[in-house]
Amino acid sequence: NLGTSVVDAAKQVVNSLNSGTKAIQDFRTQADSQIATAVNDLNSLLSQFQDANKAVISGTRSGTDVSDALDQRDALLKKISEYVPVSTFTRGDNDMVITTKDGTTLFETVPRSVTFTPSSGYSAGTPGNTIYIDNVPVSADTGDNTTADGKLAGLLKLRDGVASTMQSQLDEIARGLITAFAETAPSQPNATGLFTWSGAPAIPPAGTLVDGLAGSISINAAFDPSAGGNPALLRDGGANGVAYVANTGGGASYADLLIGYSNKLDQPMAFDTSTGIAVSSGVSDYAANAIGWFEGVRQQASTNADNKQALAARTAEALSNDTGVNIDQEMSLLLDLEHTYQASAHMMKTVGDMLDSLLAAVG
Asked: How far apart are CA 41 and CA 153, in angstroms?
């Protein structure tokens, strides 16, 4: 029946939020691994630069032709600058010194150490380890630019900025669903309804981010027929006891709760402002705004990574398919809810593709 269909559609949303969380945290682990590789590559380039610089100095002192050595050193400097923006100055005997744009010494006679300790895995809210150049921390890019400050800063931005913000947005969508479908009763605290979490039966605090909620949100077994539950509780209420029963007469045509749930999906609610979306909106619009937020980040990354146009186009196509889900406003209330869920679930499925495109743009 339609009640079962709604529960099944809700399961799709839950599965998408759960898998989206896994995809984001796997992505952060992948970015972390790429940071470790990039640090090793940079250290290798600096070692090669030392050899080339020695050849330039030696040839300059002896009066021999150093053109080839200079070309080699310049080529290495160009590669180094892809990892971190640099400034240089030349001392006596053509000896070159390299500093980062913030003045940290990267090379002076010998390479300065670039260090990083990779993590074995990530969970929502877990901070990533820092890259150090000569014991000075490397800062992530600012704003939406994931390439202008070099590969290292770009990867940090993706791991700790973009991906973490996306996770927070998923967590807020999950919190919004739990809140919208909460059971209410006079003189009783609001209690979890169709969607539940580890803190049930309490509802997550309004406007406050709960790290990892999208990864742990689940369907309340009381509504799930496959778990012995009754989907008619969506119509009648009472999953949290008789005090929460709204359809006291037991009428099959009773629809007040269903109408209320549908309305709450569109009613503005408080979302945590740290998620990058400041607009007050309902859950459905918040999910759409999250897609729009990422599209802005992706477009900026594409602008600064022209050689990644194919992947950017793939992401744009995925987003276009995403927002093309048709929710027929003329359908019955339950089918309307079901399609709302399906639209949200479809949007969540693009998380992996979108993250892949950003990682490729930086790498």
From this structure: 15
